[in-house]
User: Fold [histone H3]-dimethyl-L-lysine(9) demethylase from Drosophila lebanonensis.
Amino acid sequence: MSHPITTLDMAMPSSSSTAGGVGIENSRKRSLDSNNANQAALLAARVEPKSIIEIHISNDTAHKKVCLEHKEVEAVDDTSIKAAAETPAAPASATAPENEQEKKQDKDLIELTAEEQQLDEEYRKNCTIFLQHLPCFKLQQPTDVDASTVPRIPKCRECRRRHISKAATSVSGNHNNSNSNNDVYCRFYEFRRLQYNAAGELRVAGFPNPYNEPTPADFSVWQPDEKTAPTAGYMDIQVCRYILLHAGDQFCYLWRQEAEALKLHENPDDTIAWKKAVQGIREICDVCDTTLFNYHWTCNKCGFGLCLDCFKDRKDGQRLRRVEKERGRDEYHWLLCTDDDAAAAGKQQHELRSLMLTQIIAGDSLNVLGRLLHDVRTLWQVPQVCGCLLSKQQVDDPELTALIQDMIKESQLKQQTSASSLATEQTLRQQQRLEELHAKKLEFARERGIDYVPGRVWTKETLGKDPITSAFDNFKHINFLRKGLAGLRRFLPPRAMTLAHSTQLAPGVPHEWLCDGKLLRLTDPMHPDNRVLYQDVWKCGQPVMISEVARSLNLDLWHPEAFCKDFGDKPNDLINCLNGNLVPNQPMRHFWEGFQCISKRLLDVNGKPMLLKLKDWPPGDDFAEIMPTRFADLMKGLPMPEYTLRTGNLNIASCLPKMFVPPDLGPKMYNAYGSALHPDKGTTNLHLDISDAVNIMVYVGIPKDEDSKPQLAATQKAIALGGCDYITRARCQDPDVLPGALWHIFPARDADKIRDLLNRVTLEKGFRLEPDHDPIHDQNWYLDDKLRARLFKEYGVEGYPIVQCLGDAVFIPAGAPHQVQNLHNCIKVAEDFVSPENITHCYHLTHEFRRLSHSHTNHEDKLQIKNIIYHAIKDCCTILTRALDERIESEMAKVRGET
Ligand SMILES: [Zn+2]
Ligand SMILES: [Zn+2]
Ligand SMILES: [Zn+2]
Ligand SMILES: [Zn+2]
Assistant:
């Protein structure tokens, strides 16, 4: 039975009737996409209805200022806020009665809990300075009588809004489930200092000092302390050195950027305020939504917060975006001040020189860690190319150097033996022999003063080098090419490998090379030595495929019928991939029943079966909650768990302390019908992601109720057109193998060349290039064979064509543009992670995303990459320093014991 749906198959433009920021969405749309469907089709581009979801997202950044872990809190009554929000632009006459009203409400609504009351009385009695522990609207304000002598305490912009919204809801009798966590919405919560005077009048007593105010607990969040346990899971010496090798230079760059804040500052009052990091809150810039890491500027009247980059932009006279004028903001997209005095004086624009420099890190911890990082890298022989003065220092203690070399060697051996649990006696003997050979080499090197670090695997090519130093050699090779770009890591060139060579590198690891030797395919997901080959290509920014992952999954859980049975009645939005239209709020049964059965598929206006994908399901980060069994199944089967698990020691997102809002790293599902018969239509258009990801094919199916021959033939054709190599094509012709999805992954370094081509194609077709748009981030393009051919011919850019079959896991490096076309019906599940190798891409992408409009899902810096880098470096330095201390201690004990 079919379900013909005509009315619900909404076209994009008609969505403007839905409430929300849609008006803005439409005005932002590329001219290419808007009216001319024919021409768009000619371009093989199609409208990804990315912006549809934006209907539901409040465009009000101030409202999103803090992201709480608790969802109930995020669902603060939106409509009432909207109605009353952003009043500062209102004329003075309108503000006056509102103030009257506010005053009345001050009396009506302030209700302190017994606990708050007690604390308040204590502060009143002792007249001590205290950090604001209540939201502004709960603070005692001067009465009408003494209003002339006692200044009002400015309410932050959140509290003004919240206050109004609360009044609105209480009028309508619709009570919010107010939760004490709501208080942290307040911009001055735990930030502003207050004090009662002897007369019992409350006054603002400035802001906390970053050196005096933090408690030892506050310091422990930021300081490398050999006593505190590292936040991450098990990390050994080699892992720490590896992370420092890849992320250390980026930290130094971050450190220098922060130091620049002091030079940029303009306020004649150069005191720095300290904003304590509050559990579960991610502070974001009010202009660009980037996470505030450390130095930023705040308005001491309304709490407006501004990141370093936005401050710098204003100073250079640069606007964040050209379009998108918003109410309540000035021409630079800065929020206007909500303070009454500012409004009265007609000075609602925030000025550079009136903002207060604010830091989040406690005391001098950033500088302490920056210096420690360079010391640790020097001591532990981790190459550093940040080029700063500190990186040039040398150790002139030969005994210490020898001791550390011993420790490195031991840890390498441990890594080797612990990894090779399959090691036979023979290979152990082999290792021993190599070890002896190596000891001789070491002695030789020491005698001649050669800097020689033991190698992990000793072959002709790598003899005398460990993976860390050989990675460094590659850096040097490409360094000069990139020198002009400050802070940009020197990207390693992709490498083509031969089986003969890689088998020497990692004997016994089953694998093959696809894409002319550039794509590694590991075929035993559980092999303990996979990492050797994986890292060798991953550090060059190349994708990786690991097959046979399905062996460790319970595939019954991932069957479409299982999803239909468990979630068939739940409604969700669908997308018709043929035209990009949204099919909103369908019971998911309609999607799953048509998955394997064309006669049960939803029909479009013309009675044709739709080519559907399930949109964003499960929603948000609810996967583990909605499907705990499947979550557990996936976690135990994830390949390269040291990278992909949330606690993996090479997933540096695991270093983020518990008090920070954890980044949403998935898992996410991708469920869609196969579209081999429409070779110019992508299931997922070309785009890129800010973090690394692994995507696993857990189910591939083919409709059972129709002749499968045309579908199969189209699949083979798509694979050939897709540019797949001989080995891949041969694999897909095996009757036992059902090819699932065709991927094209492009190197991250080539993103700008791809942009250039797509912009050129747009111009060639007679369209204008809209400002603030980006052909990759807008996700409007699927590169068909013709566009890919042009990309290669004119720019020399070649992607990795990959066919993902059942049980194949595809690893996509951060920043690498990629697109997917489902050949057959696919269920895929993906998990994000943050590898040290691609940290530079994450860092610079965050910067790039600032300029994207709010309609982009990538716009907000949810990853908090700077915090992740900071805490990863902190953990590694802590572990290495502690290991060395312990070793010296034990050596000393030995000496003491002998004498
Ligand atoms: Zn407040
Ligand atoms: Zn900003
Ligand atoms: Zn202000
Ligand atoms: Zn440096």
